[in-house]
Amino acid sequence: MSIKRSWALLPTIVGTVVIIIAAVLAGSLVQSRTGAAPPTRLAAAEPWTSDTPSAMPGPSDSGTPAPSDSALPWPSGIPGPSESGEPWPSGIPGPSASDSAAPSGMPAPSGTPAPSNPAPTFEPVVTYEVTGDGPVDIDYNDDNFAHLSVPGAVPPWQMSFPSEGPLMVVAAQRKSSDLGGVQCRIYKFGVLRAVRSATGPFSRVGCVLTDE
User: Fold this and answer.
1) CA-CA-CA-CA dihedral for 162, 164, 165, 167, to nearest 10
2) Distance between CA 60 and CA 142 in Å, rounded?
3) Rounded to whole angstroms, how far apart are CA atoms 212 and 202?
4) What is the pTM of this model?
5) Any domain includes 57
6) CATH code for the domain in which residue 201 is found
7) What would the mean pLDDT of 41-50 be, rounded to a whole number?
8) With 90 as the cut, is the pLDDT of residue 51 above it?
9) Number of domains into which the chain is organized
10) pLDDT band at residue 25 under the 50/70/90 scheme
């Protein structure tokens, strides 16, 4: 009786197995036709190594040099860094020794003593002149009747004025004890109008412009 029942269930078992196999085969067929692949996990980027295929250019093959922490030589033709340690801006000429010189026609930088014998920039009316063995101390009146001094001047010395003051006078005294000499002269419009001379230690002379 039990054997008959087993044979009766056999078609049902076989049918179930066939359905399962058919379902599996159908799924595989659909996957192969659509080309879909199960999602894969992306691998993390790996550093460049010597095992990298030669067909793929490495950093040195691209023509761009790799950065380096070492100091690079300063490019030729570009001024180097300034004293502050910062690079000089590109395209702007850097400072040079010629830049420190005062431009032609400009006054000397502060701290430089003014010349004691400046050249006139006008047509002289009255000119003082002191010659001889220096140094000498010079005292004179200008065309505005102001009294001025030039201590320790080295002859020859000249000073010109664009006009004639009320009292034009110049005096000079030697600062040495030797037997040298000293002379003073006053010119008006280039014509000698007064002259004096003296010799000996600490000799002194004075010239006054007169109408004579």
Assistant:
1) 130
2) 81
3) 30
4) 0.45
5) no
6) 2.60.40.2880
7) 53
8) no
9) 1
10) confident
Mean pLDDT across the stretch 93-104?
46
> Is 93 contained in some domain?
no
And the tokens for 103? 């431009």
Report, as an integer, the average pLDDT of 58-80: 53
| Locus of tokens 């080295």 | 154
Q: Domain range spanning residue 203?
A: 126-208
Q: Which tokens is 21 given?
A: 């196999």
* DSSP, residue by residue, the chain: -HHHHHHHHHHHHHHHHHHHHHHHHHHHHHHHHH------PPPPPPPP-TTS-TTS--GGGGSPPPP-SSPPPPPTTS----TTSSPPPTTSPPP-GGGGSPPTTSPPPTTSPPPSSPPPSS--SEEEEEEESS-EEEEEE-TTS-EEEEEEE-SSEEEEESS--S--EEEEEE---SS-EEEEEEEETTEEEEEEEEESTT-EEEEE----
Q: Which two tokens stand for residue 7?
A: 């044979």
Does residue 23 lie within any of the structural domains?
no
